[in-house]
Automatic annotation (TrEMBL):
Domain of life: Bacteria
Name of this chain's protein: Thioredoxin family protein
Length: 90
């Protein structure tokens, strides 16, 4: 099972759209943790101008995920994440 970490902030429409798509992937074996950058100063400093930022954790390794176009479907996001997870597990 792969774990997703999404750095987000209130009022970020790109974040909300991505979160909605990622939440639909939990049935496909992904777990999702959403981190509000306004809750931790170090998160806010690191990601203030970059949210949404997504990480994939596979077998203890944390991988930065390239930013997805907001136009991608949840199915395409799932395919890309599965590919990344598979590459890391081998």
């Amino acid at each position: 099972m792969a774990h997703l970490i999404l750095y987000s902030k209130p009022g970020c429409h790109l974040c909300e759209g991505l979160q909605e798509k990622l939440e639909s992937l939990t049935a496909q074996g992904f777990t999702l943790e959403v981190r509000d950058i306004t809750q931790q100063p170090e998160w806010q400093q690191a990601y203030e101008y970059d949210v949404p930022v997504l990480y994939l954790v596979v077998e203890g390794q944390t991988l930065g995920v390239p930013r997805f176009s907001p136009r991608l479907s949840a199915a395409e996001i799932e395919r890309r994440l599965q590919r990344l997870a598979l590459e890391r597990s081998h």
